[in-house]
Amino acid sequence: MKQANWLVVLTLVVLSGMAAAQLIGSTRIVAQVPFEFVVANKIVPAGECVVQAATMDGKILVIRNSAAKVALMSTSSQTEARQDASHYALVFKRYGDRYFLSGIKLEGSSITYHLPESRAETELRARNASATEETLLASLK
């Protein structure tokens, strides 16, 4: 019976590690972003955007726009949704004509990666600016 309990615990640990590792390694999420956006207090120009995990736990993400020669790192946190995402997507918060990258969804996974608010977004929220959520489809590369 003790072995069965340990097997259950070990299985849960391995499964949670697998969920955290979904954006790890050579997995790159790519999207053609038609607008400039802010992440980690920096502006990323419109164009092809590539997101990839920089650490094994997926808590640090690299966001790149090679054509514009912009690359930056941002921390991330993870939440688990009730349902798996039906597609790869970059999620933005939009305040008027300003966009802020707020999350990354992975097709077939209930894990969503959330990026912290930038200073500009925090200021907009403090002024009670209304935000909408914009989802932009992405793909694996």
Q: Give the overall average pLDDT.
A: 85
Count of extended strands: 12
Q: Uncertain regions: pLDDT < 50 for 5+ in a row? A: 4-22
Structural category:
alpha+beta
Q: Which bin fits the share of residues in helices?
A: 10-25%
In the sheet with the most strands, the strands line up as 6-5-4-1-12
Give the SSE map.
Blueprint: H1 2-20, E1 29-33, E2 37-39, E3 42-44, E4 47-53, E5 60-65, E6 70-75, E7 77-80, E8 89-95, E9 98-105, E10 111-114, H2 119-126, E11 132-137, E12 139-140
Antiparallel strand pairs: 1-4, 1-12, 2-3, 4-5, 5-6, 7-10, 8-9, 8-11, 9-10
What can you tell me about this protein's structure?
The longest helix is centred in the first third of the chain and has 19 residues, at 2-20. β9 (98-105) and β10 (111-114) form a beta hairpin. This protein has one domain (2-140). Helices cover 19% and strands 43% of the residues. It is globular, with a radius of gyration of 17 Å. Mean pLDDT is 85; it is low at 4-22. The termini are far apart. It has helices at 2-20, 119-126; strands at residues 29-33, 37-39, 42-44, 47-53, 60-65, 70-75, 77-80, 89-95, 98-105, 111-114, 132-137, 139-140. The strands form three sheets. A five-stranded antiparallel beta sheet has the order 6-5-4-1-12, with no helix packed on it. The protein has a five-stranded antiparallel beta sheet with strand order 7-10-9-8-11, with no helix packed on it. It has a two-stranded antiparallel sheet with strand order 2-3. By secondary structure, it is α+β, with helices and mostly antiparallel strands. The chain is built from two helices and twelve strands.
